[in-house]
Design goal:
The protein is an alpha/beta fold. The chain is built from 14 helices and 21 strands. Helices cover about 35% and strands about 25% of the residues.
Amino acid sequence: MLTGKTVVIGVTGSIAAYKIPNLARMLKKQGADVVILMTANACNFINPITFESLLGNKCLIDTFDRNFQYSVEHVALAKRADIVMIAPASANVIGKIASGIADDMLTTTVMACPCRKIISPAMNHNMFHNPIVQDNIKKLKSFGYEIVEPDSGMLANGDMGDGRMPEPEVLYEYILKEIACEKDLAGKKVLVTAGATRESIDPVRFITNHSSGKMGIAIAKAAMLRGAEVTLVAGHVEAQLPPFVRYVPVVSAEDMFGAVTQLSEKQDIIIKAAAVADYTPVTTADSKLKKSDDDMKIELKRTKDILHYLGEHKRAGQIICGFSMETDNVIENSSKKLYKKNCDMICANSLRTQGAGFGVDTNVITMITKDGAEELPLMTKEAAAHRILDKLSKM
């Protein structure tokens, strides 16, 4: 995912430096060329050999180190960097960068980098909330630096409060957001539905389906990585929700219908990947509770058809994509849905196809438009999400 990308990580004098080797390993695993810059104080918390062993790159500390190729090293590195992250960022280094001070390899390189820069503060709670530190952070924001808000909890000295650097997985997601994909959906608003709705029978039981929400979540994350402003309306899901996405939780089909119809008008692309329960009980909870399980007969009524509503109320320039899970006559049945519900595309798959059912991490999708059908091979849901967005972005 990050092959050909250069990620520069600046490590400063903070106990949180111990988390950065894991971040570096995660980035290298995705193909990134990771270069570590360290302040002299950072070397008191973690040995540069740790990074050099993991990455195979020299850890840069001294601006005037003569063991470089003949080039102005901080300028050469700044030119090829795709992103710079300072993590952990001490109050001292935050202040120096905000004031334009470049007196070591780290600050000199940061000053020379034209690429996106991310700062992850890590310090004592009282230091973080010092008005001078907060003023420096505001100044960096005004210059276009992105600030990763620190976590709250027990700090290194045993105090409770905010100031902790987030876990490497969080920092990794910040980097992916910036450089993993081309921003071909920048400026677009994308609404995705995901997961399974639940219709209560009584206070204990409900009607639902086997949807895990993995496909919808993969689409939401892919759209975010491609620069879109993403809203995810999700019922019950069994996958981790993507970061940097507006999340609207729902339970029932009625909840989802209300959320989608309220949000739909301002969206450029709507992708309905949720598996909505088709029926909801009519009888009241009280009447059902008075009956035994053997005698209980549940009267059902159809839930509102979200995709049909979206097709009826589609505005000019809006793209609507639905999903169709079939067991037989997949192309024929899904093609009928395309026209009946006024969609621009239907992503069809079959429960009978190995690797394409509910709950798995792969899918086999046929993308159906008015121009025909394109069948995709078995692939991960993340890869399928990008293929779907490729198709939609060209419409």
